[in-house]
Every structure is written in C-alpha cells, then in structure tokens.
Amino acid sequence: MRLLNAKTLQFETFYGNKQPPYAVLSHRWEKREEELRCQDILHGTRKNTAGYSKIKACCELALKESLEYVWVDTCCIDKTNSVEFQEAINSMFKWYKNSEVCYAYLSDYTVNKNQGLDEELFKESLWFSRGWTLQELIAPAKVVFFCRDWKLIGEKTDETICNLISSTTGINRKVLASGDLEKCSVAERMSWASKRSTTQHEDIA
Predict the structure, then answer these.
(1) How many CB atoms lie within 10 A of CB 23?
(2) Residue 175 falls in which region: left (phi positive, over 0), alpha (psi -120 to 50) or beta
(3) pLDDT digits over 136-178, tens only?
(4) What's the CA gap between 23 and 68, in Å, rounded?
(5) Distance between CA 128 and CA 109 in Å, rounded?
(6) Distance between CA atoms of 54 and 51, rounded to whole angstroms?
(7) End-to-end CA, the chain
C-alpha cells in the first residue's frame, strides 16, 4: 500500500498488514486536470493546482490528529500501471475500513456561522451522488465532514448528520454506524448505488 507522508508529502510503501495508522480523503474529482496524480508527487510537479491544495489541507488535518500518513485516491494509485490499478480497486473498501479516519471534503457546501448546519444544502451536496463515495461513506468507522474552506461540519455518527445521510442515501443508520454489510441483501446495496453516478460508466460496477 502506497501512503503519503503527511510531513514530507512523499510516498512510502508498506506491505502486508504492516501499514501505520493513516487517514484517507474522500472527495469529488471536479476538474480532472487539477487533480494531482502519482507522477506529480514523485516528480514534485503541479503544486499550483487545486488538487495539491486539497491534499496539503488533508495532510495538515491528519498531523493535527497525530496521524503521519494519508491515502488519497487521486495520487496514491499509479493509474498508468494497469495491474496496480486493478489491485487497488479490489482493495479500496478494505483500505477505507482500516483507516483511522476518513475526511469527507464537500467542496460545494459552505458552513454559515450564523445559521449553523443548512440541512437542505448539506443533503444536496454532489458528494452524495457520486459512485465512489458510497464505499468511502460506509467502510470507515469514523467519517468527518468538512466544507469548502475546510471548516468542520461534523461526523457521520452525529445524530443530526446521521439522520440526514440516511434520509438522503437510503442507507440504514445501523450500517452507517457500524459499516457491517453482512445482513444487507444485494438488492439493498444496489439500491444505495442506484441514484449515484460515475464519470466512467463501467466504474459503477
């Protein structure tokens, strides 16, 4: 597993089950040309992009929680290597589940200090409509939501937020709290994905 050192913003690779505690970033790919790729980290390029700023903010959050490593789908997978890419796709749920915390970045939501949580705008975030964010919501035990300017919104287990997520996604509150899918039928799981979309049609599988 390739992890990003939150202090140096350089990769370190860990094998088997010897990974250190790490955070993961859940986000939407917006302008694909702005997202940092594996080669950008390796060569220290494209540091003036929104993708770099997003990864740097994620690393700063992790360090505040004494986590020295992060995993980000845009850059921690070498997508030019088809074998590695397929292995990563098959391992992602486990990687999210084994994380200490998942930072869910809602770039289209802004916290209003005077009004508090805007429930309707929160539910309308496109983060809840993307295919890949489904596993990122369910698998980690701890998911913490942040708005566009990285202000804290709350955790998925907070009562109000959990209710909002459940009503928006159709996912049972118990599943959100535990990540346990054993008692969920395939039909139920498919219903969670039915309202979501991916950039590439085959990715929805």
Answers:
(1) 27
(2) alpha
(3) 999 999 999 999 999 999 999 999 999 999 999 988 888 888 7
(4) 8
(5) 12
(6) 5
(7) 23
